[in-house]
Design brief:
This protein is α/β, with parallel strands linked by helices and 206 residues long. It is built from 5 helices and 6 strands. A 6-stranded parallel sheet has the order 2-1-5-3-6-4. Strand 1, helix 1 and strand 2 form a beta-alpha-beta unit.
């Protein structure tokens, strides 16, 4: 991939695919894998985030059979996540709070149950509200990936060394939980989304 410019110029996507939000000529929906995993994913997404063409969380939902999306901030009743606290799963909130522990195979080995990963999706402010406003999740352990993100290209500007797009972060987490093939499948989808987005911005040659 050849980068044409240093800064991405914001453009409104013309004739977008309703699923991947790329221009239909660059649609990557055929590349979405179908993964049936023991790990359960719950994406808690802010309503405004779903309107952003750079959102990648919805691609994770499309790829993962054992997953669901909960929408918050849409002006209706407050979202209650207490029904997610199911004893069949080791439930973890994937959020880099001050008390978050590093997600490792050693950490996971302490509990034999399959993992349920709750992933906030939105900008930093929107995602943080899942962490501190949903008191029903106060006893759910927080986990994060503490290794820095060494990628040189991003869909959005990242404010922390560990910052990643939602799909990118889910790929890394499920690589630890489920194994390398799952990570590779989801990272392939993320990189296709990244490439198509940069091409649409004119910062990457087709």
């Amino acid at each position: 991939m050849e980068v044409v410019g240093k800064l991405a110029r914001k453009r409104k996507t013309k004739d977008p695919c309703p699923c991947c939000f790329l221009n239909k000529a660059r649609c990557i929906c055929a590349k979405i894998p179908t993964l049936d995993l023991k790990t359960r994913l719950c994406l808690v997404v802010h309503a405004k985030e779903l309107k952003r063409t750079t959102n990648t969380g919805r691609l994770a939902i499309k790829a993962l059979i054992n997953s669901e999306m909960r929408i918050r901030g849409d002006g209706t009743e407050a979202l209650d996540l207490s029904d997610l606290l199911n004893s069949r799963y080791q439930t973890l909130l994937f959020y880099p709070s001050a008390d978050a522990v590093d997600l490792t195979t050693e950490f996971l080995a302490k509990d034999p149950r399959p993992v349920q990963l709750i992933v906030p999706d939105g900008n930093w402010r929107q995602a943080s509200k899942v962490h501190y406003r949903h008191h029903e999740l106060k006893d759910v352990p927080r986990v994060m990936i503490k290794a820095p993100n060494l990628a040189t290209q991003h869909l959005r500007a990242e404010n922390t060394p560990e910052g990643m797009a939602t799909l990118e972060a889910i790929a890394q987490a499920l690589g630890i939980i489920e194994g390398a093939p799952v990570k590779e499948a989801l990272m392939g989808l993320y990189l296709a989304k990244l490439e198509g987005t940069l091409q649409g911005r004119g910062t990457l040659k087709d």
